[in-house]
Amino acid sequence: MLPLFHELEKSLPSRIIFSLAKRPYRTASFVLFLVLASILWVYHAIAAESFITLFNSGLSTQVFGPGGGRHNGSAPGLHKPVGIPMKIWQIMLPKPRDDGPPHPPDPAQLQDTPSWLVLNPDYKYTLVGERGGIEFVDKNFADQPAIIDTYKRLQNMGMKSDLLRYLLLYIEGGVYTDTDTVAIKGVDEWVPDFIKSEVNLVVGIEFDRRDGAAWAEIPHWLQFCQWTIAAKPKHPVFQMMVQRALYSIDLLSTEVYDSPLDSISPTSFEVMNSTGPAAWTDVVFEYLQQLDPSLEDTKDLSFMTGPRLIGDVLVLNIDGFGMGQQHSKSTNDGTIPSQALVKHLFRGSWRS
């Protein structure tokens, strides 16, 4: 028993208890001090546990609140905090042929989907196809004919899928993820409980130039990915993104190609800068600047070593959604880093 008591005596609250207990009398004062010391010890233990939770979550010490100031987080209340809706969305649209009907669906395209189902039991999983996409847009945007017309006339499946994911997350919320992604951790683990009620959008980084050279098709110093996005419904960033996409698509049709929308064949660079990750980065960073005016360039988010909360947006570092790449200090040594939530396999079916 002595080693156990010896270890117990090391903490300050325990030393108070032991010093009082060694006195040859039992008084009301001793009882009062004992109660107070016990409360202090419990508080000490809870605080230590909270610190361990914060440390293990991988959150950066640079955590910001809605006004852009330092935010240390708050302990969870009695009720479970409201997080991202328990929904997972994937999109599989038919790949068109130059002549004849579209290519038939390929079951191999969903070979990684089981990882999402197994790690997220009780989540509602929806695979949205061509008919489902049209029905969703017709139902939810009947009062916005520009959205319906643009969606139905788009022939590039990459652009169509991009636009649809923004619309789905705006209306329904949840997690959108490409079919060539593998879930590494369940969605419930993506956001620590003590900030779940504050986080309305989770975004990851796909490219961080850091101190390297610029890439030809990536206009930003740091680029956000949109192969996986998590959000609560009605987030304003999706309104901004849809407006940006509609404007860019119209510009391609009327000025770049001077042709009807359903007859244009955009390049991969045009796709990325109209509806894809380059455009998404423009919009997300503009929103982040509204929350934290000190942000001047995406370069300000370079070299992140852990997630960072800016307003209601949790920005993950490169390993969050972008592990396994040969750049951006992404972990690519064959191991799975502790901060990894998703792995993207880059099959790139949208390019064809």
From TrEMBL:
Transmembrane segments: 25-46
Nuclease in keyword set: no
InterPro entries: GlycoTrfase_DXD_sugar-bd_CS (IPR007577), Nucleotide-diphossugar_trans (IPR029044), Och1-like (IPR039367)
Gene Ontology cellular component terms for the protein in this record: mannan polymerase complex
GO biological process, one term: protein N-linked glycosylation
Keywords: Membrane, Transmembrane, Transmembrane helix
A GO MF label: alpha-1,6-mannosyltransferase activity
Any one Pfam family match given in the protein's UniProt record, by short name: Gly_transf_sug
Assigned protein family: Belongs to the glycosyltransferase 32 family.
Protein name: Initiation-specific alpha-1,6-mannosyltransferase
